[in-house]
Amino acid sequence: MGAAKSGVGVASMGVMRPELVMKSIVPVVMAGFYGLIHQYRPKAKSHYLFDGYAHLSSGLAAGIAIGIVGDAGWANAQQPKLFVGMILILILAEALSLHGLIVSIILSSHAGQSRAE
């Protein structure tokens, strides 16, 4: 999801300002990086549906956050001074997605336990 939305920003950047295409690839790389991180799952004896939903929701939230920043990267073609601001917003989105990853791993580790334990 994040790579698709960021790809729209890269394509529009390529049309408007081809010399800035390499700068606009940063959100695509970050979306791919977090996609790979969200694929990590510790080996468990049994798989719970809750685990799947926890990882799906955190990965989707990370992808959407990074994708929206990448899609808005076309503004960088209009004003090159906005590149630093775009990177700062991307870092903020990454912090939220890292938090989502940590929460999903914590939820996955407690998914099979009952409240009585």
Q: What is this structure's SSE topology?
A:
Layout: H1 2-16, H2 21-24, H3 26-38, H4 49-71, H5 74-78, H6 83-109
Helix pairs in contact: 1-3, 1-4, 3-4, 3-6, 4-6
Distance between the termini: 38 Å
User: How many separate domains?
Assistant: 1
Mean pLDDT: 72
Q: How many helices does DSSP assign?
A: 6
Helix/strand order, N-terminal first: HHHHHH
User: Which structural class do the helices and strands define?
Assistant: mainly alpha
Residues in helix, %: over 70%
Strand count, sense and barrel status of the largest sheet are: none
In the predicted model, the low-confidence regions spanning at least 5 consecutive residues are none
Which word captures the global form? elongated
Strand content: under 5%
What is the strand tally? 0
Q: What is the rounded Rg?
A: 17 Å
Family: Belongs to the V-ATPase proteolipid subunit family.
Membrane topology: Multi-pass membrane protein
Pfam families: ATP-synt_C
Main location: membrane
List keywords for this structure.
single chain; 117 residues; mainly alpha; 6 helices; proton-transporting ATPase activity, rotational mechanism; ATPase_proteolipid_su_C_euk; transmembrane helix; ATPase_proteolipid_c-like_dom; V-ATPase proteolipid subunit C-like domain-containing protein
